[in-house]
Amino acid sequence: MTRARNMPPPIEEEWPAVCLVRPQMGENIGAVARVLLNFGLKSLRLVSPRDRWPNPKAEVVAVGADVVLKNAKVEWTLEDALSDATLVIAATARPRGLEKPVWSARETALNIRAALAQGERPVVMFGPEAAGMETEEIARADAILTLPVNPGFASLNLANAVAVFAFAYAEARQATELPSWFQSDSPPATQEELENLFLHLEQELEHGRFFHPMDKAPLMKRNLRSIFLRARLTQQEAQTMRGVIKALTIGRGGRKKDDPQD
Amino acid sequence: MTRARNMPPPIEEEWPAVCLVRPQMGENIGAVARVLLNFGLKSLRLVSPRDRWPNPKAEVVAVGADVVLKNAKVEWTLEDALSDATLVIAATARPRGLEKPVWSARETALNIRAALAQGERPVVMFGPEAAGMETEEIARADAILTLPVNPGFASLNLANAVAVFAFAYAEARQATELPSWFQSDSPPATQEELENLFLHLEQELEHGRFFHPMDKAPLMKRNLRSIFLRARLTQQEAQTMRGVIKALTIGRGGRKKDDPQD
After folding, report:
1. In A, which residues are within 8 Å of B31 by CB distance?
2. Could you give the count of Cα atoms lying within 13 Å of A49 in the half-sphere of its Cβ?
């Protein structure tokens, strides 16, 4: 085995990935695969597809893009599907009650290009056909991709929504000037590292009875997560924050043994 | 009947129209209707759809956009479908051997907005699923809309291609600055007026044995048409050109009786 063989594939081939959250119809998954490849994208992730996988209906509609389906990464949870991502964008209507940057398709595409140049691993996620994503799912995103749809008839077909993003991304490939982006010498934290940070923080806050009234806890947690997501922590900073929490909680007694795993 | 009642609907409601040339699958026609309405467009034209019309499969897929299907204008020939258009854009790969401006989706959308502001009636046409448009069909266009597709896998699903245009158009609605456009105090010639001019010119040229060798005639005619299409004639200029042809041919004998109809 040569060293070259062990090298990971070039980052521009694998990223950005498109992640379909709980997709329902195989035909739509196939149509998404086709339009991704039409615009030169290859990485597809599926979270808990409704029907069995592999899905023959998807293969029929994908036409010549079966390679995208074959290489699709299928996970049961969104958490697993996003674990290695460092930049997550949710394609959805402007969400209520979540403080996130809202980007057009063009801004999303240019920001992804700029992020790739910094070594990030971006994922764009799209919700299921009928209901769209849950607020908790959208809350995982660093930013929102919103399309200028007719407010009276806003529900886009899944493949059409992906088509617009993939087109904007293909156009951005040709762009010569990229927006200035998060500058750092240290690699960005992955979703998994952030998730561990959040769990650690939330556990310690629960111990300190921070979340009251109890029914407000999910909202309070979401708002806390939003703050750290917006800060775009590096790996180093996520580690530092873990240390901060440990330092703040040490000596409260009885908690040090059950720190969440790293 | 009040005067207001007799007023035509505002021009921005009816234009641009999207024209599907020889579409095959009803599902695709329905998906096009849906995505048009998603992005606030309403005018659909169908040239010689393969299956019967109305098509129940189209209605199922259109979901809540049946109004777009119900109001779709169905014609047997592309000539009829474009007769009232003053600006025709063909969505296709960059054509060989046709001298036409080539526009991105964004340029197409901005040029359409600018053209509407000048009272033009723009139509964007999309070819059938498998084979695309014939060269003779593309030759009718003033400009080409080309998308940045993967050359190794370029064939877009019909509704996805329309989705990208409709999205770009919805974005252009929000644009504050429009490109400078064909300026004239006189209304632009319609496709029907141009067609009559071309037929008149071609008939007279045939009489003068202009087209030889015979097998080159279609190409020579197409190139001639391209010149006048690029010139973006006004109605007045199209009339003037008819007069020019008459003036040039008068006295050649035997032709004045069978001028093509106006």
Report:
1. 157, 160
2. 22
Residues on chain A touching B64 (C-beta within 8 angstroms) = 153
Average pLDDT over residues A209-236: 83
Nearest alpha-carbon partner for A184 in A113, A244, A240, A117: A117
Q: Strands A143-145 and A73-75, how do they pair? A: unpaired
What residues of A are in contact with residue B174 (Cβ under 8 Å)? Answer: 148
- Per-residue pLDDT tens digits for B102-139: 999 999 999 999 999 888 999 999 999 988 999 999 99
| B138 close to B99: Cβ distance less than 8 angstroms | no
Phi, psi at B82, each rounded to 5°:
-105, 0
Nearest to A31 among B105, B157, B173 (CB): B157
H-helix or E-strand spanning residue B222: helix B217-231
Distances in Å between the Cα of B181 and the Cα atoms of A169, B99, B110, B118, B227 are 28, 19, 10, 8, 18
Name the residue of chain A whose CA is nearest to B40's CA. A150
Q: Which residues of A touch B171 (CB under 8 A)?
A: 104-106, 148
Q: What is the pLDDT of residue B236?
A: 84
ipTM of the complex: 0.78
Smallest Cβ distance to B171: which of A34, A148, A160?
Answer: A148
CA distance B216 to B165: 35
Q: Are B107 and B148 in contact (CB under 8 A)?
A: no
- Nearest chain A CA: its distance from B119 CA (Å): 24
Do the Cβ atoms of A30 and A54 come closer than 8 Å? no
Look up the pTM and report it: 0.80
